Amino acid sequence: MVEEWALDATGQEKRRQLVRAVIASAVGTSIEWYDFFLYGFAASTIFAQLFFPTSDPTTGLLLALGTYFGGFAARPIGAAIFGHYGDRIGRKATLIITLLAMGVATALVGLVPTYEQIGIWGGILLTLLRLLQGISVGGEWGGSVLLATEWGQSRGGRRGFLGSWPQFGVPVGLVLGYLALQTFQPVDPYWGWRIPFLLSIVMAAVGLYIRLGILETPVFAKVLAENKVERVPVREVIVRNWREIVLSALLRTGQQAPFYIFTVFVLTYATKTLGFEASDVYTYVIVAGIVSLFTVPFWGYISDLVGRRRLYIVGAAAMAVWSFIYWPLLDTRVPSLVFLAIVLAAPIHDIQYGPQATFIAESFTGRLRYSGASLGYQLASVTAGGPAPLIAVWLYATYQSSLSIAIYMAICALISVVAAFALKDRSHYDYAVEYDEPHPSKAAE
How far, CA to CA in Å, does 362 sit from each of 15, 178, 435? Predict the structure, then answer.
């Protein structure tokens, strides 16, 4: 059986599977985030006019971003659904389902008729497909992180570095999404923006091929072998670890809210308010994404040296300060300074994002890890990431000043500082030992 192989594999065989698992996690999340970001970029720049035409541009933008938020609202649902099956039947099988669901939903977005063709039904279909995207992403993240980290050393080792590779998929998806929309949108007024969405089905097929070659993780194989699978893992983790779930969600506030302002709201702000060409802003954000390709794994690696919690607190504090530097740089309207603001936001954000996946996953014991980590991570999508562009639009429309957005971002960052202090650092725990059993590392805490 796969479970027996995972438990008895030699060191060389485990290293081979580890490399495959890391590649599969990075490629899979890259595809998922390409799909998710592509929709966000289109919602910020295209969908208001095509699917929600109104006499008030702000209202149209808010309606378009409202469908964007729907994807975030659905992510905790996906976390609960796929977290249950990830802790019941395994990481690998669940990840195959999430990838297929995302690929189909995104491809169908590229086929939705516009308001001119079918009226409000276009917006309704768009919203339903966005919800399916959100459910898929809600289940994807936890499985990808566990696939990578649970094939590593169960104690110590490079868990922070390994857990950064699923996070690495975010800047990859960001860059690919921007490039695809920027490349194909000018090709044809009707089909141009649709082509990147339709290409998703091809990318999903590639990701599926890679994931089919990965075996189940040794940690979950051990849970199966010892007959410790929970019957209803989502219910169990909520009862046992509600504190860790809440703290994980709060932990993400100062990372996720600024991130979606840096990557989604900035498109609207820089073009509509500052008067920049959309192509220039796309280029700036693409460069920032390329920087993150290096800084995300770098900060994950650093967390293995200094500890997850310590590094995270530094990163959240740095974000609070950066909030009051970022907006004045943008508001100069000087291209070089705007470029600097957008690009420097990436490595500052990544101080939190690099170690974040492992920090959250380590907060939950093995038999409940998929459910607990997914719920904690994705709940922030409802309270932080999803509302952030909407709140930014409302704040600027109300106060006509970017300072209000800076204050909002700083408050989010301070919430993360407090949550990181409160969340136990289990960097040195044995990943394969259930946390409610006698644990050799507890004395060292």
Answer: 21, 33, 10
End-to-end CA gap in the chain: 37
pLDDT, averaged across the chain: 87
pTM, to two decimals? 0.87
Q: How confident is the model at residue 301 (pLDDT cuts 50, 70, 90)?
A: very high
pLDDT of residue 295: 97
| Angle at the Cα of 388 from the Cα atoms of 75 and 149, rounded to 5 degrees | 45
